[in-house]
Amino acid sequence: MTVDAQPIAKLSDLSDLGFAVVEHSELPAELLDLVDQVRGLVHAVARTQADTAVLAGAARTVAALTEQLGADPRPLGTMVHRTWPDGHTEYGTLSNIVAGPANPLAPPLELVRDGEEVRAEVTLNGLYEGPPGLVHGGWVAALLDQALGSASSMTGRPSLTANLDVNYRKPTPIGAELTVAARITGTERRKVFVSAEIRHHGVVTAEGTAVMVQVAVSRS
Ligand SMILES: CCCCC/C=C\C/C=C\C/C=C\C/C=C\CCCC(=O)SCCNC(=O)CCNC(=O)[C@H](O)C(C)(C)COP(=O)(O)OP(=O)(O)OC[C@H]1O[C@@H](n2cnc3c(N)ncnc32)[C@H](O)[C@@H]1OP(=O)(O)O
Fold this sequence. Notes:
It is found in: Cell projection, Ruffle membrane; Cytoplasm; Membrane. The chain is α+β, with helices and mostly antiparallel strands.
């Protein structure tokens, strides 16, 4: 492992760079509850066998809610800034598809630092199904990518995935607790090398490595 001087500045205040930023602690509990309820709704829709009258009524109700909730949207690219109990802070995208706290399509994934690693426990419901009873391979890669990106952000500098390599070792089950963990394995100039795996009952179902490249942040 080599560690060279980094030309990319550490992330400071993204609002100074023109990003819309919301504090995680200021997200209303009602929003987080709504996100969770909509997650349940989407799962129910994907599996419903209700009769046509119920389906038609539900569609009208949802259309009315969509109009109400869509009236004053936050700008695309809104960031959420979070301060963890150990004092470290991080930015993420509020509607990130894999871990955004305001995105009902994201599984309830909270990657927390644990020493030199980031780690999360997550159970994916049937919305993430690929083969019967198994997590879709694209979502396995997405979970790994998110964890790898989160590990890379421990440098304090923003980075993007340049290369992602995934090995699917065992089927990853739906409806079962999974552990996702990632860490930095090396840095070289702007490159951050990271590795991650998903475990079920301690058995690795998938593992990934990535080259993340640190980038200068600007809002254009
Ligand atoms: C730009 C806006 C950024 C905004 C970020 C703002 C805030 C961030 C805050 C919070 C985010 C926190 C967490 C996010 C968590 C998870 C997100 C999941 C991750 C993603 O979802 S992310 C989206 C998918 N991702 C992309 O959308 C990237 C598209 N792509 C590019 O934007 C460029 O391609 C880039 C930037 C990657 C490189 O471009 P570049 O011009 O900056 O760098 P350049 O080419 O000079 O390479 C420099 C060194 O990297 C080596 N290198 C380059 N490419 C390589 C490859 N493929 N494999 C191996 N090594 C590679 C070279 O060989 C050289 O190495 P060497 O130093 O040895 O010469």
